[in-house]
Design goal:
The chain is of the alpha+beta class and 458 residues long. The chain is built from eleven helices and 24 strands. The strands form six sheets. The protein has a nine-stranded antiparallel sheet with strand order 4-9-6-7-8-18-17-16-12, sandwiched between helices. α6 packs across α8 (330-342) and α7 (319-326) crosses α8. The chain is globular.
């Protein structure tokens, strides 16, 4: 099967490395920006080099791994710099695991100066060197080009020509839609977290879905669901956290009961590692479609330009304050941020419960074109394939939507929508709305908007 991909070239001024620089022993990360050829964000001494080395090494492991096929891809993670935080983000090759390293300003001996987003080169030599960083090393972190000693022969440029799978890019867009729904379920000390990870079955584990529950201070695995249990499929996906637990302060586990998504957060004195898992081993985030309902709606459209104009590399965006500032509702601002997240212009920090500004170094302005369900829904509207059967009031509607040789019955309800199509029957809304529900929602919201305009004109 051919996988849709985009040709892309990473262009680095040198290969990232750990070693001597002009000033000291350092961790030097080469960058590749979309708007600037080689932006320079930061240079400062690490207060805990061993911890930072472990965090970035595990991030390397995630982005170089395909968790259910033998051939691992190799994608370079993305770094976002603000005055308060350095964030490294990456996806596994299968798109089913999202990883992020958050390093606050307190992790360094100087303030973070630059603002922006770029790729960083994480090569094999870099990965090996990260594993050798010691706690007593006087290590500097350099992100960018300036002040870095290159080679004796002069400057060199490292180019990586890759095919970025469309599903990998969509994964970055989709994952932000899941995180606002996560709830904190379990929290344990690092010793218990380490014991639990090492007790898991080898390989990917049981084929059927398992659940993580807490009894007293201990975590255990069960095949039975119960309130507060965290679903887990693909044991190998969380074993990558094991190297982090020696120096950690604790492990927190988040989950969304509706989607089955879970997130595993390893906390440190100055920093954290966030690992988010898709509901099943063989399901990537790219195909879930959780953001489709927001993209198809109208509530964000007025707020979007105002919210986007106020993005200034904030590490936390206060939606309530922003809503008051621009004179719109919090819901409108949140929807606009969700859409900006789908376009690569915002990420979500579940611990803070807020979005942060970043710009992925890929052109995602037309990300909606990567969503086939949304395109098909718009075609249904263009062909006048939607009609209202009954308006039940209170936001409840029954509609008829054209399918392939059949009319589907769509029920729109405040507590959940349903459709008679085979796709919905198979997924039951767990992977976002089908194209018929999307078309029905767009039709109803368009009619409501038109009615509101007529009332205003009168």
């Amino acid at each position: 099967m051919t996988v849709a991909a985009l040709d892309y070239t990473y262009r680095y001024p040198f290969a990232s490395f750990v070693g001597p620089t002009d000033e000291a022993f350092g961790l030097c990360l080469a960058t590749c920006g979309r708007r600037q050829e080689h932006p320079c964000f930061f240079r400062g001494r690490l207060r805990e080099p061993r911890v930072v080395g472990d965090l970035l090494w595990v991030l390397c492991e995630v982005v170089r791994t395909h968790f259910f096929q033998p051939r691992p891809p190799n994608f370079d993670p993305v770094i976002t710099s603000s005055s308060e935080m350095l964030r490294f983000e990456g996806f596994s090759g299968c798109c089913g695991v999202y990883a992020r390293v958050d390093l606050p300003a307190q992790a360094f001996d100087r303030d973070i100066q630059g603002r922006g987003t770029t790729n960083v080169d994480f090569n094999q030599a870099m990965r090996s060197a990260l594993g050798r960083l010691g706690e007593q090393d006087a290590a500097m972190l350099s992100v960018g080009r300036e002040g870095v000693t290159l080679t004796r022969e002069g400057e060199s440029v490292v180019e990586k020509k890759v095919n970025l799978p469309v599903r990998w890019i969509k994964g970055f867009s989709e994952v932000q839609a899941y995180q606002p729904c996560l709830e904190l379920r379990l929290e344990v000390k690092p010793a218990e977290a380490r014991r639990f990870l090492r007790s898991l079955p080898s390989g990917t584990g049981p084929r059927r879905l398992s659940y993580v529950v807490q009894t007293g201070t201990a975590l255990r695995l069960t095949q039975l669901s119960r309130p507060g249990a965290v679903p887990l499929h693909g044991m190998n996906r969380i074993r990558v956290l094991d190297p982090l637990l020696n120096a950690a302060r604790g492990l927190r586990i988040w989950s969304d009961s509706d989607t089955g998504t879970s997130a595993w957060e390893v906390m440190f004195a100055t920093g954290r590692f966030f690992l988010m898992l898709s509901p099943e081993l063989y399901r990537g985030f790219s195909g879930e479609g959780q953001v489709l309902e927001k993209l198809a709606g109208r509530r964000w459209q007025e707020a979007l330009p105002y919210v986007q104009a106020r993005l200034a590399w904030q590490s936390q965006i206060d939606s309530a304050s922003l809503a008051r500032e621009i004179g719109l509702t919090v819901e409108e601002v949140e929807d606009a941020l969700a859409v900006l997240g789908s376009r690569g212009l915002a990420g979500y920090d579940v611990t803070a419960g807020r979005y942060f500004h970043r710009e992925l170094p890929f052109d995602l302005e037309q990300v909606e074109t990567l969503q086939p369900r949304l395109k098909d829904a718009r075609k249904l509207l263009e062909r006048q394939g939607v009609s209202v059967l009954s308006d039940l009031g209170g936001g409840a509607y029954d509609l008829s939507v054209a399918g392939t040789g059949v009319q589907h019955h769509v029920r729109l309800r405040p507590d959940g929508d349903r459709c008679t199509c085979p796709w919905f029957s198979k997924n039951q809304g767990e992977r976002g709305p089908c194209k018929h529900i999307l078309a029905a929602r767009m039709f109803v919201e368009g009619a409501e908007s038109a009615e509101g305009s007529d009332d205003g004109d009168a």
